[in-house]
Structure formats: C-alpha cells, structure tokens
Write a structure and sequence with these properties.
The complex is a heterotetramer, with two copies of chain A (216 residues) and two copies of chain C (225 residues). Chain A has one domain (6-211): Glutaconate Coenzyme A-transferase (3-Layer(aba) Sandwich). Chain A starts with 5 loop residues before the first helix and ends in a 5-residue tail after the last strand. By secondary structure, chain A is of the alpha/beta class. Chain A has helices at 6-15, 86-94, 131-137, 199-204; strands spanning 22-25, 44-47, 51-55, 76-83, 100-103, 107-109, 114-115, 140-144, 156-157, 172-174, 178-183, 186-192, 210-211. Chain A has a ten-stranded mixed β-sheet, with helices on both faces. A three-stranded mixed β-sheet of chain A has the order 7-6-9, with no helix packed on it. In chain A, a hairpin with a 3-residue loop joins strand 10 (172-174) and strand 11. Chain C is α/β, with parallel strands linked by helices. Helices cover 21% and strands 27% of the residues of chain C. Chain C has helices at residues 9-12, 34-43, 62-67, 85-92, 103-115, 178-183, and strands at 21-24, 48-51, 71-76, 97-100, 119-122, 136-139, 142-147, 152-162, 168-169, 185-195, 215-218. In chain C, the strands form two sheets. In chain C, strands 1, 2, 3, 4, 8, 9, 10 and 11 form an eight-stranded mixed β-sheet that branches. A three-stranded antiparallel β-sheet of chain C has the order 5-7-6. In chain C, strand 8 and strand 9 (168-169) form a beta hairpin. Chain C starts with 8 loop residues before the first helix and ends in a 7-residue tail after the last strand. The chains are: A alpha/beta (216), C alpha/beta (225). The A-D interface holds A 47-51, 64-68, 72, 77, 83-87, 89-90, 93-94, 118, 123-133, 136-137, 163-167 and D 27-31, 53, 77-81, 84, 87-88, 91-92, 98, 100-105, 107-108, 110-111, 122-130, 170-180, 207, 222-223.
Amino acid sequence: MKPLDRDRIAARVARDIPEGAYVNLGIGLPTRVANYLPKDREVILHSENGVLGLGPRPAQGAEDPDLIDAGKNPVTLVPGGAFFHHADSFAMIRGGHIDICVLGAFQVSEAGDIANWHTGEPDAIPAVGGAMDLVSGAKQVFVMMEHVTKKGEPKIVRRCTYPLTGLRCVSRIYTDLAVIDVRPDGLHVVEIVAEGLSFAQLQQLTAAPLRPPASA
Amino acid sequence: MKPLDRDRIAARVARDIPEGAYVNLGIGLPTRVANYLPKDREVILHSENGVLGLGPRPAQGAEDPDLIDAGKNPVTLVPGGAFFHHADSFAMIRGGHIDICVLGAFQVSEAGDIANWHTGEPDAIPAVGGAMDLVSGAKQVFVMMEHVTKKGEPKIVRRCTYPLTGLRCVSRIYTDLAVIDVRPDGLHVVEIVAEGLSFAQLQQLTAAPLRPPASA
Amino acid sequence: MIDKVVESPAAALADVADGATILVGGFGNVGVPFALIDALIAQGAKDLTVVANNAGNGDVGIAALIAARRVKRIVCSYPRQVDSWHFDRAYRAGEIELELVPQGTLAERIRAGGAGIGAFYTPTAYGTRLAEGKETRRIGDRDYVLEYPIRGDYALVAADRADRWGNLTYRKTARNFGPIMATAARVTVAQVREVVPLGAIDPEHVVTPGIFVKRVVRVERRFAA
Amino acid sequence: MIDKVVESPAAALADVADGATILVGGFGNVGVPFALIDALIAQGAKDLTVVANNAGNGDVGIAALIAARRVKRIVCSYPRQVDSWHFDRAYRAGEIELELVPQGTLAERIRAGGAGIGAFYTPTAYGTRLAEGKETRRIGDRDYVLEYPIRGDYALVAADRADRWGNLTYRKTARNFGPIMATAARVTVAQVREVVPLGAIDPEHVVTPGIFVKRVVRVERRFAA
C-alpha cells in the first residue's frame, strides 16, 4: 500500500479546481495546491487578509513587506488582482462568494462536521483565525489531510471529539489514501488514491461507514 | 413684526456651523445654508448618495452628469473630497459620524420628535429617502422651517400629528421667528430673530410651552 | 481563460425568468444602467420585483420598465418624484406593489444580502410607521428595528471601467448602489464605458472585485436617451 | 483651516486614559502602526483593552505593549503564533484576559460598531464552542449567532498617504483592518508614510474618508524595529 505524499495530495486537489474558480487555500498544507494548478487554467486565489489574485512566492530579495497571504508569507499579485479591507474580505467569504476553500483538519465527521482549530487540550492557547468563517461561508469546503493520525487513529469519524469548527460544511475529503464525498446520506468514496489499497482496508482505517466508489 | 426670509434663516443656521464640521444639508431649503458658510471656514458637506466635500453649483454648461447631490442637482467637488458607495455613506450617517444634519419639517414636538416625510393623507404616494437615517444618526439634527404653516397653524407642537420621521432626535429648531433648543426638560428659546416679536407673541404662535431666552 | 465580457446587453440578460428579483443601481438618473434596462424590456421578462432607490424618472430606465407593465413589486426609498408619472399611475391603479424602505436601511439590507448576514438591528425608523409590525429590541440605551437582507437574482449596475475578470471602477456619484448590489445577486451584470486589459486597473483602485461580477458589457450610451 | 496633522506620535496619543479600549490595525506585522504603539507604551496608559487580529509577534508592537504589562484584555482571532511568547506568558500567568473571536466576526463587529448597527446575526461559529452562551436564531434554512458591535476609544491605524483632512490610502495587504477600525473609534489616529496636499488624493481612490480620522502623524519608520 502506497499512500500519496503531501504534494501528490495537493496535486489531486488541484485537479478538481475548475477554470474561473475563486479559491481560498488555508494556511499550511493547502497552500501547496497552488503549485499544482495548471498554468493555462485561470483560478483566482483569495486570501482573507484582503486580496484576490494571489500569485506565486516572490523571488528572494523581491518580497514586498506589505504583501503577504493569510499564512503571513510574502506573496505576489497577478494582473487582475485587487486589495480590499477585512470586512469586505469576509463579506466575500460569509456571503458565499468563494467557490472552494481548502483546509486541513484534525477530524471530519460523516455528517461533514469539521474540527480543525483546537486540540481540546485544556492548557492549549486557542486561535481560530478565519477557519470558522471559511467553513460556514465557502460554497464548497475541501478538506485535505492524512487519513489517520501519526498514532494511526482514524481522522474520519462518526462524530468529532475535538472542538468543532463548523457543522455539516465539508463537501469533499482528500487524504493520502482516498477522495471521499460527504453527501446527505453519508460518505462516498470517489477514488482510492493509495496504490494497492482495497476498499475494505480503507474502511478499516476510517471510523465512519464508507460507500464504495461507483466503479468498485 | 418682521420674520426672517428663507435666506436669512439659512444664514442664521450657517452661523452655528463650526469649522471642521461634517454636515449633511437636506434637500430643498436646507441646501441654501451652504451659500452662507463663510469662505474662510472649512465645513465638509456630505451627501447621502456617496460624496463628502460638496462644492458650489457648477457654472451652466460645466455640469458633470455623474456628479449630483441628494437633491439630484449638479454639484462640484472640493479638493479633499471623496466618493464612496451607499452602504458606506449610510454607515457614516447611522454610525454617528455626521456632526450636523439640517432638515426641513412639517412638525417638531417638544420632545424633539420630527415629522417631515409624509403628510399622512391616505392617497399620498409616500417617499422617505434618507430622512429617517439622518434624524436617527446625525450627532445634531437642526430643523429649519417656517414657524407656522401657510394657514397659520403652529408647526412646533406637543405631539406630532403627522407620521413621524424619528423620535427625540431634534437638537435645535431654526424658524423665521426664533431659534429654539430642544432639551430634556423642553423647549428653550435661544434667540428671537423676528424683529419686534415679543416672547409672549412667539409663545402664542407655538403649540408647546417655551422657556424664554436667558437674556429675556 | 476567464472572459466575462459578453457582446451585447441582450446576450447578458437572455436568461432572466419571469418573476425574477432585479437589483438596479442608480440614484435619480445617475449610475442607472439604462442600456441593460432597455435590454430587459426587449427581453420580455415580467412579474419582476425591482429593488432600486427610485421608481424611475421620466420615460426612461425603471420608468419605462414600469410603463411596459413588467414590474409587479418595487422595493425602494424614494418613489414619488416630480417625474415619476409611470410609477404614480401604476401605483394608483393598484398594478404595482410598493415596499418603502429608508435609504440607509435599503443599502444595509443589500449589503447584508451580499455579506451573508442573517439579519441586523438598525436604529433607523424606530417608532415610525415604516417599522410597524417589525421586531424591535432595546440594546444599550437605544431602540432598534430588526431588518432582513435583500438578495436578487440579477443585479444591473453601471460602472466606468471593467477588465475581463469583471473588476470594476465607477465614476463619481454614479458609484452609489452599484458596489453593494453587485455583491447581493446571483448574477451581476455590469454595463461599462470601457473594457480595459487585465491588469490595467490598479489593484488599489478596484471598487468591485470581479468575484462579484458574472457578465460585463460595453455600451456606447451612458445616459438616458 | 482644518489640519489634523500632529507633530509626533506622542502628541497624537497624549490623552489616552487608563482603561481605554484601543483598536489596533494590522495582520501579523503588516499594517501594524508600530510607531503609534511605541508612543502608547511611552505614554504609560494601562489596563487597556486591545482589539486586534493577533496578540503580537516577537518583541514589537502589541507584543511589546503586553510585555510592558499594559494590556488587561485582548479581543482577537489569532493570538497563538510561533512568536507570540509575550502573550503566551501573560495568558498562562492569568495576567491577560482573552476574548477569542472568529476573524470575520471580529471584522464585522468592528464594522457594525462604525456603522451604527445594534447587533447582527452571523452563521459563523454556530454550533461551536465560540458560540456557547450566545443567542441564536434560525432564519430561513440556516442557524445564526447574534453578535454585538465593537467600538473603541482609539483606533490606531497604519496608512500610506494622508492629507490634512485625514483622507487615507493604504498599501497592498497593509489595508486589512485599518479602514474598518477607523470608523469604529471615538478618536482615530493614523500613522502615515506621507502627508500630501489637500486634493492630491484622487477622490475616487480615498479608502478612508477624513470624516473617520481625528489625527494624522507622519512617521519615517514603517516596519518593526
């Protein structure tokens, strides 16, 4: 069994982002999706700190100290980009204008609940940023994560045990093992992406019932 | 007894507008106040259709079809002016950022209620515009009107009989006869402006109790 | 390649269905998308709900749409004007329903529609006839009225410049309701004076980012005929 | 003549009282009014409530204000960062109270504060720990949380250009919270890179109209020391 590495998960997510989509890539792993968007496909990247039209990272030495993304990394702006303030930026998010947001997660439930902001440890200092706005506002929420934790515990569960970020909001889950749709009647495997992994094995690594891919 | 004409009422209002004030002049009579602001006093005029820094009327032939005031008359913009959209414009009004608005009225009550948008006639087609926003949002609401109707009925009353525009919002009333403050304990005459008019005569033309000016 | 520019107002409005809610920019005759309204009249959709500041002036724009008997209902702040005769007639004849909304509440409800706000409390109109029957609440030392968002199927706006991504700038007080209406409709159509290459609009000066715009059409005529 | 330009950050903040609520612009280190925060530290006001997206980075800005033990309470969306050691220490020591607010709700509450909205319903955070104890309401087919406005005694913002009336422009993503915070405080102070003559800012490009700004101060240094 050969799970995808993180870059290949990012590439798999990128495949599903259509021309013309307005997309918010969450901080951390999801930002890698940008690297795999085909150059001839126009996808417009939004960042909650007030920018549409994020471009690639600037060359070293060419950073503009006033131009960063939500992960606080230096970025560039493509022609056709725009700047705006935070209330306008979150009006885009909350108002349902972002087609797709891609986020990491600690857990996703079979109902599409997501937990990705707080480990629940009592002494942890919490921080939420824009995650709750994004999951409740984007038209589609893609989660991108490893299928199980480092300890081997399933991250796709019947009910989240970590504090929730949002309820019934995840559309699709991309892991190192599979692509899974969240539908009103439960979880549907769209594709098994780990070479040599059977549906039964995938189900064993998942703490919520899965339906097999149509082709299986 | 010599009441002020409309231009002299406008001039009297203008006298009370201090340097640096952000002012909204209601459509109709109040727009005349602008003509009496001293040239060396910087007062910034707001119009609810998205402009700060209204200047004088343009010369004939020099009108810009995209530059009008709330009364839909061509205007100019002074250096330092700014354009913005309607939600931002009313954020200024509702958020308490306009120092003074000057409006006409059918009636003002001793509590500072104002009626200025609807005659109450059953077959009248109503129109409200920004009046309700202005009276509830501006820091000070100045009313500018004739003291009595054409039929001689008092317009300053105990309770408005016309449909209200707003409750307890008028700060000061400027008429052709007097300047009157609305205070928590009632109406205080600041100044009798009609030459040869006594306080007793003023009271007779007013359907709510007045207190005499401090100097009287 | 994203290209939101369509060849004509007719093409931009071909899919408007009967009964649609249309947000129409403009204040008086300034910033009114006249070419789009003319195309809407030609297109024939009826039983429309129109959301706009005014109910039309003279014989053009929304007035012409009302005269063509396409408007079932209008939501606006200032219908009665010296030259609103088409609205006045339709209203008196009981052909058109009017929802009168204070101008700032109209703007805020449209903004709320675009920003995903479920409802909001405004002090405007508290204690007046326009708040009758509405939920109120005392917050701190003020009384407020609960107001709900407005969204449209289409927003028709008149902008100055656009690029093929739909980024817009406006001109002077023609900006008025355009930027907020553009956020609050399923399909926003902008008529513009000029289509410029992508990147020609300074990213600091974009007023309506293209995310809010579905279709752009260049028109020669900017003002009423 | 209106002239909102003051000679120094110290002069701009001389009247800040103990216990004041200060809205501070910035996202990470971008758009943070470092010179104003330094002046606030020198000024000495304590028991402050700070409203900002983050709780400071490294040893500068809000982090330095916290290190100087001036902050009693912070309202923010993202306090915990790799370099938020001053906040982390103060928080663990129980010296600072934290109100954690989702970023979009924080922005909208500040905007509501500036726009005179009494409260609003947002879908964000419904069903989560951050909505616990808050009033909720079902509107249409969605659930919403009731949120109240945020206002400040002072707003400290970092803008790019200003004129003597206080009109402001910003630079790139340094715009972030500046424009909304400027609307929501009794006294808004802008540190700017450049003061230009009245009329030099195109009226179409003004981002914060001067009506929202009380004091402007030009500073040489734009970034953290």
